[in-house]
Amino acid sequence: METTYLSAALRSMRGRPRRMLAIALLMCATGHVMADDWPARTVTIVVPYAAGGTVDKVARQVQDGLHTRLAQTVVVDNRAGAGGTIGTGQIARSPADGYTLGMVFDSFATESHIYPKLPYVGKRDLTGVSYMVRSPMVLVVPASSPYQTLQDYVSATRTPKKVSYASVGAGSSNQLVAEAFFEAAGTSGIHTPYKGGGPAINDLLGAHVDSMIASLPLILPYVQAGKLRALAVTSPQRDARLPEVPAVAERYKGFEAYSWVAMIAPAKIPPAVLEKLSAAVTATLRDPAIAKQLSAGGFEIVAGNATQTNKLIQDESARWGRLIKARNITLE
């Protein structure tokens, strides 16, 4: 049908207008064919972080479901380094054909405020596909810590340079949410950055650092095993998986923060391919078996569409950009 329409249009026009129309109609036809045929080969999901981390876990939990729904092999490719910016740069430079995608977490929204010379511009070069999952964060201390309650912790942080807190790196959500907490409490802590969640948790377990605000999926097993003590959660209300742990908002009204994972793609991905991809991700996340597995690990299914994902990134960038400037947070 598209070829017949194109031929008829060409016969009815002459000269430059004819050529312009031919190009426009050919592009339209090509776009339809791409959307209809996609995916015709392996789809790669670039995870710009190390294997075993939060984003990697979500990627591998949805990998088989996406394979089933797309009827193509789905590969997870870990490209860690420079706070996720190396792998994200690879996504931004990839062809916008739907075959190279990415999965990022909350720090993606704040990269431009922390890294002065990124090899890409998020708003220009990348687009959201799905706001996949989110999870509250939890203030935790070692099991041997003298801080038994949130009040104990707040009281200790009133003394400058007394209480240290771990993060997975400068500008990470661990640091930003901790600094937001100290801002709300009118106190302070000593930032101790690590190169990843593994080293940070290991030092926390060994009581080499006093505290950490980390995502629920990361610390839940250690809390359940009695190796870490949870003092507060950053969701507006208490979390059903830690019902005895108060919300920070019970003490500081309106306090709320989540760690989240999203799928992104090169910005010029064809709209029809983006729509098809977003629908496949949503269906995968809402699969009862996959949703149960993610929930048990501490995640809340969101399954937001591309528009909602882009709004999340924009809102988070504005919120944390203000804090980064106010608290003078830089690469250390």
Explain what the structure shows.
Helix content is 46%, strand content 20%. The chain has 332 residues and is of the alpha/beta class. It has 3 domains: 31 residues; 149 residues, D-Maltodextrin-Binding Protein, domain 2, CATH 3.40.190.150; 116 residues, 3-Layer(aba) Sandwich (D-Maltodextrin-Binding Protein, domain 2). Strands 1, 2, 3, 4, 5, 6, 7, 8, 9 and 10 form a 10-stranded mixed β-sheet that branches. The N terminus is likely disordered. It holds the Pfam family TctC. This is Tripartite tricarboxylate transporter substrate binding protein.
Give the arrangement of secondary structure elements:
Blueprint: H1 2-12, H2 15-37, E1 43-47, H3 54-70, E2 74-78, H4 85-93, E3 100-105, H5 111-114, H6 122-125, E4 126-142, H7 150-157, E5 164-167, H8 173-185, E6 190-193, H9 197-205, E7 211-215, H10 216-224, E8 228-233, E9 258-266, H11 271-285, H12 288-296, E10 300-304, H13 306-326
Parallel strand pairs: 1-2, 1-3, 5-6, 5-7
Antiparallel strand pairs: 3-9, 4-7, 4-8, 4-9, 4-10
Helix pairs in contact: 1-2, 2-11, 3-11
